[in-house]
Amino acid sequence: MIDQNVIDNHNLTRGEYELIVRLIGREPNLTELGVFSAMWSEHCSYKSSKFYLKQLPTKGTNVVQGPGENAGIIDIGDGQVIVFKIESHNHPSFIEPFQGAATGVGGILRDIFTMGARPIAILDSLRFGPLTSPKNRAIMDGVISGISSYGNSIGVPTVGGEVYFDDCYALNPLVNVFCLGLAEKDKVFYAKTGGAGNAVLYVGSKTGRDGIHGATMASAEFGKETEHKRPNVQVGDPFKEKLLLEACLEVMDKDLIVGIQDMGAAGLTCSTAEMPAKSGTGLEIDLDKVPQREEGMTPYEILLSESQERMLIVALPEKVKAVREVFAKWDLDAVEIGRVIDGGRMKVRFHGELVVDVPVSAVVDLCPIYQRPVAPAAEPAPAVHLTPPLPKDCGGLLLELLASPTIADKEWVFRQYDHMVQTNTMLLPGADAAVLRIKDSKKALAVTLDGNSLYARLDPRSGGLIAVAEACRNLACVGARPVGVTNCLNFGNPEKPEVMRQFKEVVEGMSEACRAFGIPVTGGNVSFYNDTEGASIHPTPVLGIVGLLKNIDKVVTPGFKSAGDTVVLLGENTAELTGSEYLKVHFKDEGGRPPAIDLAGEKAVQETCLAAAEAGLLRSAHDLSEGGLAVCAAESGFFGDDRLGCELDLDDDIRMDALLFGEAQSRILATLTPSNVEGLLHLARLNGIKARVVGKVGGDVLRIRHKGRDVLTVPVKTAFETWKEAIPRHFMFQR
Amino acid sequence: MKFGVVAFPGSNCDFDTFYAFHDVMKQPTVWLWHKDHSLKDVDCVVLPGGFSYGDYLRSGAIARFSPLMQEVREFAAKGGLVLGICNGFQVLLELGLLPGAMLRNQHLKFLCRFVSIRLENARTRFTHKGRTGQVLRIPIAHFDGNYFAPPEMLEEIEANGQVVFRYADAEGRLTEEANVNGSLHGIAGLTNRMGNVMGMMPHPERASETLLGSADGRVIFESLISRF
Amino acid sequence: MKVRILVSFKDSVLDPQGQTVKNALHTLGYDAIRDVRQGKVFEIDLAGVSRAEAEKIVPEISDKVLANPIIEKFAWQIIEE
Amino acid sequence: MKVRILVSFKDSVLDPQGQTVKNALHTLGYDAIRDVRQGKVFEIDLAGVSRAEAEKIVPEISDKVLANPIIEKFAWQIIEE
Ligand SMILES: Nc1ncnc2c1ncn2[C@@H]1O[C@H](COP(=O)(O)OP(=O)(O)O)[C@@H](O)[C@H]1O
Ligand SMILES: [Mg+2]
Questions:
Q1: Helix runs in A479-551, H state only
Q2: Which residues of chain D have pLDDT under 50?
Q3: How large is the average pLDDT for residues A232-260?
Q4: Quick one: three-class SS letters along chain D?
Q5: CA A661 to CA A549: how far, in whole Å?
Q6: Which ipTM value was assigned to this complex?
Q7: Which chain D residues touch B69 with a CB distance below 8 Å?
Q8: Is the CB of residue A489 below 6 angstroms from any atom belonging to ligand 1?
Q9: How far apart, in Å, do the first and last CA atoms of chain B sit?
Q10: Distance between alpha carbon A415 and the CA centroid of its chain, in Å?
Q11: Strand partners, D7
Q12: Interface residue D70 vs chain A (CB under 8 A)
């Protein structure tokens, strides 16, 4: 029966087990223990993170739904809402990159269409080990094929994202997938049951033995045992999901259902417990009616399977027939497996026997919340960490940075994604943010994912702050104002006090920045236990921020447009070096402090850029991030159709390498026709920020002068080819 | 001109195609459901892109057995206009309404990007508003767009002037590099012998508004809409 | 009855997937590999079907559905009576 | 020597392609078909390799390159000495 060994295997502590016994008033049977262990896993219960997540600002006049549902909802006016969320699929993607990533896409899509929204965009934030290793290449190739296979097939464009490389991800890649949906405000659906007597319908794929304990797997470190956790991998069926998507949206459109929830982590268990828990009811289901793919499945297996492409729907009894007809139209079965009951219990029958009978609130709401030990805050690192010798060949350094996969062109990745289906994508991947028009309106949405884990490792608080600031800056560069935030927090083992310190500080930084920008957090995801063989990844917050453009004609695109345009730098050059891609790539130095950030200054820079965009002054804008000014100027050349160079003249009193490659925050490089320059400088003065003309666009060379001396001269063509080839060259012989 | 856009399970450019005909080109446009047997008196049937039946087995292989395809076959035999885009092209090949077959892209990766295609034959019902030799900038997005036909078939297609589009560079040159998926003779689109059925891999519905980067695809829609 | 149907490219059709596998194997040092062709296999479970019926059905579905005769050929066998 | 390697999903793994083919065949009226599993087949030409060597090489490359042991299984045979 249930001994310590069984409890351990379920990843429950003795204390948790005893609490379960108290809550249900007896010893659980094995199936019930399985139910609790899945729902009380870190992945489903947020037991280590909840305490800290509470401080995130979640309110706002435009917030229709904050955290707590499958996805957050923001009102964008005209009776429309956007629905968005980000999810991690890190552990499955390490075990089986293709299917792990593919099912990650499938999962986040379901979170969006469960709420009645049609998914309109996917973005992915990916982190891998260095490409010099064949293993890392195989993981990257598999992950990208997986995302492409699922997203392309279902017809949701993958419009952007990010790809970072660092040693710390070699044994623990990160795959975070974001999805944005669009819905009518009065056609949004929630995971609720309505009153007793309502019918519970199971729709989608049959249940198999796949993915049992997926949630628990994502809630433990990888070690040797992971080997036999392997058969848990699920295979995604995007075709089935497409049918499910259309059928679900159709029953919602026809107003045939009461509530709906996808079966994600913890499968049937999760939806069977959460829906009634949110509605103050109970639920009774009969497992014999659950469509099964394999023979001889036990109740334990049926309840905990994480087979993909399944949903649970609650409908009024008189609507069941109509629901069935819609699903039949899409060649899907909708099977009645139970009903809503009074009394707040989850009752599960199998072969006529009651195999689970527990209060839903115990399963869903009463999992203990932990305030795990937090290591003391670290001493701030010295501002000047080291003084590298001044570089002689800055052109060579620029090429070295452009060839660094983190900075290099990602076209090899996104050309494998259908980024244009649905015909809304105005700004293709590669821009600071993706921009999607909203059909039949003047509005457009901008979306970006961002997070720099080196900053977060050096100083978690700054890492959190900068991630928010930079994501908003990306939006400002295309002319969009941020309206809502989601986030994916990827960390190591929360039982390590140092990891908890990182977590606590990152969340504090994020909270502070979101408050400063006045943007609500409407949801997110936490992925702990990103450790392999005892080593944790860098703390990696990934921010997903959605922005709104009121007037689509005012969108600003990156890339120099024409020779003779003036280049203006918004913001201040300061002597930042540590934490930079430059020190990391060239000196293998990852010490010191991340660049400083001042939120008021940041906001003023963004406000200036936005005001200029709205006034139609800008011909291009691009923010300065990894690789600093030189990389930003080079990329601005690459993004334009004519691949123009530019000449920049700088006279700041700071080290030349910090000026060229340092990552001082809150800077944007903009280009304008000369006649608009005064307008921009005026806006900058109004906002109290530094802005100045630094050069002009033209020629086929990128030339930067410092105090009248040429410090960097590189033909755009050379730079472009270096940047373009850096990733594909690793995949020449890859299948 | 009344257009009908076919929806198969797994079609995913059906809305885009409908939007292009109905909202952009302002033409009467109706949905055609794969399980039905009626073409609703349309003048032109459009098979959209996507992944009908997941593209499992082979792209377009299963959609060809849809009930509606019997009607499409008869409609085409009587000279009705049929346009297949991407997956729709693949379905037409599988149906045998167009000659040849699609293989996996030569680099074995899905490929989504703008390409240039050269208009080879401006005397078809689908292209008469364009000029032979004209270069169009239109996106592609496919895994299986590497056109193949056995030598005799290929010869016949060429001899009949059935090739409508070839992958080219921006200047209209047929280079190996421009032939992004490895298609034989760089074929990106072709008609049947009678000239009333056309298939093309590039997506004209994605290139019908300048807002989205190109409106070159309108040539095809405008050709269809206006009589010869 | 269980049948197995092998569908592969005709010899005249280039098989880039097979080529890529071959290259991958060469990179790993398997030099003895002279050629690789990749195809599809279907294992089909037929209920209540005689041998004679199978001999009618299987080539029919192979030709009509499983293989595209322009580029592919097929072969089949009974693997379980 | 020529070998044939069959790679298919393990029995417990969902095979969406096989399912879809099965459904298509049902729609076409082939009701006798109870199940379809779809897999890959590789035909490999090995030069100057003995049987014993093949017995070493083939499982090795199947495991390492051709099949994904996490979700797939393989079987092989010699089809030409
Ligand atoms: N980092 C975070 N910030 C804000 N909200 C979060 C965060 N992580 C999780 N949440 C919220 O907690 C709830 C539960 O998340 P999750 O279990 O991932 O949902 P699901 O079961 O749909 O995957 C969701 O509403 C989610 O938005
Ligand atoms: Mg969910």
A1: 497-517
A2: none
A3: 95
A4: CEEEEEEEECCCCCCHHHHHHHHHHHHCCCCCEEEEEEEEEEEEEECCCCHHHHHHHHHHHHHHHHCCCCCEEEEEEEEEC
A5: 31
A6: 0.94
A7: none
A8: yes
A9: 13
A10: 20
A11: D40, D74
A12: yes
Which sign does the torsion angle of CA A487, A488, A494, A497 carry? negative
- Whether A152 contacts B59, CB under 8 Å: no
Query: pTM value?
Result: 0.95
The average pLDDT across A607-620 equals 98
Phi, psi of D19 (to 5 degrees): -60, -45
Residue A710: Cβ within 10 Å count? 12
- Please tell me the total number of residues recorded for chain C in this structure: 81
Residue of the nearest CA to atom 24 in ligand 1? A68
Give, for ligand 1, the residue of A525, A526, A542, A545 to mutate: max count of ligand atoms closer than 8 Å to Cβ. Answer: A525
Contact B138, B206 (CB under 8 A): yes
CA distance C1 to chain D (A): 10
Which residue's CA is the nearest one to ligand 1's atom 2?
A: A524
- Residue A224 reports pLDDT greater than 70: no
Residue A440 backbone class (left: φ over 0; alpha: ψ -120 to 50; beta: rest) = left
As to burial, measured by CB atoms within 10 angstroms (0-12 exposed, 13-18 middle, 19+ buried), residue A528 is buried
Structure tokens belonging to residue A421? 């289906």
Decide which of A735 and B73 is more confident. B73
Tell me the catalytic residues of B: 86, 203, 205
Q: Give yes or no for residue A112 CB within 6 A of ligand 1.
A: no
Confidence band for A216, pLDDT divided at 50, 70 and 90: low
> Does the distance separating the beta carbons of D43 and C40 come in below 8 Å?
no
Percent of chain C scored above 90 by pLDDT?
A: 90
pLDDT in tens, A173-198: 999 999 999 999 999 999 999 999 99
Regarding the beta carbon of A181 and ligand 1, being less than 6 Å apart is answered no
